[in-house]
Amino acid sequence: MKTLNLIILLILFTINAYAQNETIHLQGMLSSQNSSVDTLYFKSGIPQVFLIQIPGMHNNYLSNEDNVEKKRLENHLNVKEFKLNHIVNPSYIQLENGEIIDLSSSYDPYRAIVFWNGKKDSKLKKLETNRNSTQFVTEELNRDKLITYLNKIGIIKNENNQLNDMNNFTEKSKQLMDVFLEQYTQPNVFKTQNTLFYQQDQKNVHTIIMYEDNSKEPKFKSQEIVLNKLGKPVKINEFDRNGLFEITEFEYENDILKNIIKNGNSTQIQFNDNQLFYTVDYIQKDVTHIVTLENGYLLEKRFFVEQGKKIEEYDYMYEDRYEKGCINNYLNGVLKTSSCVKNETEPNEIFAFTSYNDRLDEIQKIRFKMVKKENREMIITISDNSNEVVADYNFKFNDNNLVETFVYDKRKRVVKCYFEYTYY
Prior knowledge:
Shape: elongated
Distance between the termini: 111 Å
Largest sheet: 19 strands, antiparallel
Mean pLDDT: 81
Radius of gyration: 29 Å
Low-confidence stretches: 6-23, 27-35
Number of strands: 29
Number of helices: 5
């Protein structure tokens, strides 16, 4: 009889427990079937946001889109208004309002966004996808307007639309255009991280042909640049060992750049005083480039706007800023890279590139230093974070002070480039 009473009590206790705890089965099995998962308990108070990104049994890493989604929430919203919980492992989550989120099964990948306003009498809201997570959280926070960053993107869209109707070519436009075109007139081995670390005077040069030779395979033509009498690019042919694979052509009207045509696809170039702008199609996004000239350096803003979508959460912006003699690149206002040409404290350092992680820690730094310069030869060394030399560039010049050979020596991997020129 005592045993029967005990069984009845246990049944009543179990029924009562489930009556007070509504389990949200977002994914598979109960945690009681998997004792290795953590149980996370959240008290009432500040609103809680759960960004759930569980890779699954056969995956042990998050995708780039997962990382971007977390960064969107951090960058676009005021994280002081809520607690962002990034759930990447199978877990059993219990809220003080009695609800339970069961994420104990780890067999399949799972993505969701869950919001709880932190009040005991309020139920959680969920969206079983990571897409639109910023919009979802914004709405649950009862915002009357879109968040500040998305408002900014909306303003930028309008500005871009207005730019399309402008075409105001001035003296500033000419200076900007000339510097913009210089990046196309120099052989591509003179560039790193989209920056020219060496620029030669190519007055009266008509064509530049570059050959590559890595000593293991036959020498082949890798690039051909055709310039007009003003030194502006007319055509660039890019080759690999299989032959020609990319053609870039430049169209002018009264010596003003009008179109850049790459493999038959034309991009219209427009000017508005100290602004050069154009829009290209890139993986279901319209990318608008706005280039300006500041202190002799090109600064660029790139706006990525998703095609056919009104939701601006998936739009983003890269922006160059000239700061303390360096060009710093920001993604949605967060510093990502820094490019510095010439170091006043180290005269031999002619270029430095630094990249940063989300915490603004340096994750990569390369330095270019000129160690030797003579009449017919120049050597540049490249060092890494630990200041260890990892590569050498060796230039040798012809009678016209143009590069005749360029040798790239990176830890015993040697690539030689040979140049031929024709003149007007």
